[in-house]
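Z., the sequence and structure:
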Amino acid sequence: MRWYREPLLHFICLGGLVFLYHEVRRPTPLPAERPIVISQDDVNQLRSTWQNEQGQPIQPEKLNGLVEQMVREEILFREAVKVGLEQTDPIIRRQLIASMKSLLLEFAGQSEPSDEELRVFLERPGNGYSGALREEDWDRLRPRLREDWLRESKQRALEEILISYRRDYDVILPASLAPLLEVTP
């Protein structure tokens, strides 16, 4: 018997394909459709923050109030996303950009510079330091050099990350700007 000619098998396979198509094409749920979950870790974080700031354990009614405040803030956040404030409000846009930039800088993967790297940085023109340095000045200048080196290194890492992100986006500009920005319109 040829099992692959059975109508029941065709029906089951076709039903599976329709189900799979439906699952793939299902839109992501709106923020209001997802439950607001306050975990035990969130509650523990509230307790810990209160303890650190106030120097005393939090009272149960105050903890309940802080949890309720978290829920209200999440509701307001979701409603703001629902009406598109993150896309249309310039203040929110700037805050999101600053937060993302800060996050990327934090995870830029900086290591502690060696003395050799700091000396190369010191001798590079345009960094605000004069190249001539006596050895006794090195110990005094090293902490400031380290901070400047780390700041510049993080900025370079951020630029590299942004360049890698840029590959994921199509940028469409007016033809008049393309020569100035070296981008094809």
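The CA atoms of residues 42 and 138 lie 46 Å apart. The chain has eight helices and no strands.

Let me know what you think.
H.
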